[in-house]
């Protein structure tokens, strides 16, 4: 059996997972993300080494090591170009990791890793053209074209969350105004929910928020399911934003399948059904050429680990 | 010398051009587009035959015949899926043409042909990742990824004009609301110009329109160049819309070059300079990774003929 290893470098934790040839994560290890690039690199190597040990393996038993991170990554130069969490710029992640790791290191944006994982082992298995959005704190994008990961001409693209949804509209964390992320992320949904609550003191979302320790991405979806009219309007508007974004991507990429991942995809059919319906009005020539299925991603956080682990193979 | 032949099936004329190995259109022929699919197909074959004769050639002297049309085309099935001009749906264009033409026929959307032409012989020569927008009655899109034409997973994508610019905003001819085309086409610019004129009777755009037989895509650009404040605001807003659209595409495709073609690209630096400046605010991590050059397409209408002629080669 040839195993692979993937590392997820996140803002709060470094996780390493060992993946077998059937794409199962057979064991893993994690530790908190500390401050400072040199320390983080050393911790990443140690996390990987410990995860490997748990499987009875050493790092030189693997053909390569893959890393995914919620950052702007240049997979060709191996630089971590930009990270919102840490303010790192052009850090030589691949090069520094290879001082500790005796096999080639591949690095990619985490949403790109996720779509690779879903293609290999999840909801996009068998598809050659896949578009995936991860709906979390931000909106991540992953694209498979002709069975291969597409991350832009210079490797730093596929930033689907940073395309116009309402140009010059809501400010986005990236500094641009009007990005899809500023309308379709969990952060945006919370903002939309809080606005509706403030305008509608009678909504049961107030009681839900008190009972659940605050407003979250679930507040509107939970209360809409329970029949609250204000929550339904929030969900309806959110789904329109998301469907408009997805429709535009369909018109460009015509994927065989669209996957939604990230925390918000946990809303399941409450999210998927209105989005599928609404997307029809945003797809070019929909009455003639139709639209691909829109499904929930299958692997959750494991998608990123599996995708990272196989970066050296694709 | 191996020649190629490209046919441009437009709403008003059918044009055929013979292209030599240096990508020069050495001779051409055209006739008006009549009504009725069977007649149009016969005319296309005749137009091609006459253009070939002018070069001392017969249709079986060519390795293939390429066709570009401002329609939704399925290059894999050879169907003209949808044409706004004619209301044709799923017409077997390739199959019917091959009854008249003794070599394989390839068909593509005209904006896709244009970017192929520009890559082979125009402003994108030598580039492997190219994004092109044609700013005309509509907004056409063409994409080269890794040196190859990308037209979506099923060949019917790359509809860059039909992605959200202001989701649910201005109605677009395609039936979707808020498309880039509804803000950045010549048609949209004329609407924006007329609105500004109506709101500002003092603008010199009124005199310009009278002198030039009506409002056109040039009205605001010409008057802005002459210092008219209202026209400057129209141009400024138009360039912001276009820059927001281009910025989003850069964040997804990270092309090596962005080309602007179509009638409006004739405005030259009056268009290009503000767009280049404004696009910076719409490019993700622009201060670190920058943006590709934005240039005017070089070949004009010949791009479509040359691209169509080489569809069988790419």
Supply database-style keywords.
homodimer; 314 residues; alpha/beta; Nucleotidyltransferase, domain 5; 11 helices; 38% helix
Description of the structure:
The structure is a homodimer of 314-residue chains. By secondary structure, chain A is an alpha/beta fold. Chain A folds into two domains: 123 residues, ATPase, nucleotide binding domain (Nucleotidyltransferase, domain 5), CATH 3.30.420.40; 170 residues, ATPase, nucleotide binding domain (Nucleotidyltransferase, domain 5, 2-Layer Sandwich). Chain A is built from eleven helices and 13 strands. Chain A has a five-stranded mixed sheet, with helices on both faces. Chain A has a five-stranded mixed sheet with strand order 11-10-9-12-13, sandwiched between helices. Chain A has a three-stranded antiparallel sheet with strand order 5-6-7. The longest helix of chain A has 25 residues. The model of chain A has no long low-confidence stretch (mean pLDDT 97). Chains A and B meet through α8 of A and α8 of B.
């Amino acid at each position: 059996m040839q195993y692979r290893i993937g590392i997820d470098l996140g803002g709060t934790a470094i996780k390493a997972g060992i993946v077998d040839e059937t794409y199962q994560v057979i064991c893993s290890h994690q530790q908190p993300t500390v401050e400072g690039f040199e320390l983080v690199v050393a911790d990443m190597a140690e996390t990987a080494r410990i995860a490997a040990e748990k499987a009875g393996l050493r790092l030189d038993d693997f053909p390569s090591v893959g890393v995914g991170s919620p950052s702007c990554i240049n997979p060709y130069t191996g630089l971590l170009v930009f990270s919102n969490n840490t303010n790192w710029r052009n850090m030589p992640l691949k090069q520094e990791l290879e001082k500790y790791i005796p096999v080639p290191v591949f690095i990619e944006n985490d949403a790109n890793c996720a779509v690779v994982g879903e293609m290999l082992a999840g909801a996009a298995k068998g598809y050659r053209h896949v578009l995936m959005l991860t709906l979390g704190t931000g909106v991540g994008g992953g694209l498979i074209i002709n069975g291969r990961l597409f991350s832009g001409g210079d490797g730093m693209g596929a930033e689907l969350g940073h395309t116009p949804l309402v140009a010059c509209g809501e400010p986005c964390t990236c500094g641009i105004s009007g990005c899809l992320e500023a309308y379709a992320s969990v952060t945006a949904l919370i903002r939309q929910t809080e606005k509706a609550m403030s305008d509608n003191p009678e909504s049961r979302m107030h009681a839900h928020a008190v009972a659940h320790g605050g407003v979250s991405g679930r507040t509107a979806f939970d209360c809409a399911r329970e029949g609250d009219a204000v929550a339904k309007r929030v969900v309806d508007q959110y789904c329109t934003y998301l469907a408009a974004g997805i429709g535009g991507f369909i018109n460009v990429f015509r994927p065989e399948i669209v996957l939604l991942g990230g925390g918000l995809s946990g809303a399941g059919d409450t999210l998927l059904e209105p989005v599928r319906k609404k997307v029809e009005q945003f797809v070019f020539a929909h009455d003639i050429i139709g639209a691909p299925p829109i499904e929930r991603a299958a692997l959750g956080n494991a998608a990123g680990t599996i995708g990272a682990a196989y970066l050296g193979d694709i």
